[in-house]
Amino acid sequence: MSAQSYGLIATFDTAAEIYEAAQEVRDAGYKNWDCITPFPIHGLDGAMGMRRSIVPRISLVGGIIGFCTGMSLIFWTGAVEYPLAVGGKPYFSPMFAFPVSYELTILFTAFATIIGMFVLNGLPRHYHPVLKYDNIAAGMDDKFFIVIETRDPRFNADNTKALLVKIGGKDIKELEA
After folding, report:
1. What is the pLDDT of residues 53-99, one digit of tens each?
2. Is 111 found in the same domain as 59?
3. Pairwise CA distance, residues 112 & 58, whole Å
4. Which stretch of DSSP H or E encloses residue 8?
5. Domain residues for 87?
C-alpha cells in the first residue's frame, strides 16, 4: 500500500452477496468500512453492525425546545413585558399560547432534524476518494461495493485483501486518497 492509500474496494454482483459479505467484514472486526449499493438493501445496516441513529433524539430535543420557546414567548409578552387585562382574561394561559408553541415545535423539530442529519453524516462532503474509482458509476446501476479504509485499526493490506477474496469480492483495487 502506498502512503496515499485510502483503502481497498471490492465488487459484488448481487444484493445477497454484499449482504453476506458485510456480515463477514463485521465479524472480522473492521470498524471503518462502508457498502456502496445502487438501491437500499433491507437489513444491510444490521448486517454491517450499525447502531440506530440518534437523529430522532435530536429531533425530539428540537421539538421540546420549540414548544418551550413558544410558551415562554407568549408568557413573556403577555404576563411580563406587556400585561394587558382584556375582559377579565388571565395574563397567560397555555390555551392561548398553544398555536404559537405548536408551530414553533414543528419548526424547531424540522431544523434540528436537518441540522442533525447533516452533522452526523458529515455533509456537505464535496469530495470522497471512492469517486476516483474507475468503475464507481456501476455502483449506481447494477454493482455493489465494499470499501475498507486504511485508517481502520485492523487494516493490513494483505490480510484485508485475503478477506475480500475469501468473501467473494471481485476486481479488488486500492483506492487513492
Report:
1. 999 999 999 999 999 999 999 999 999 999 988 888 899 999 989 99
2. yes
3. 6
4. strand 5-12
5. 55-121
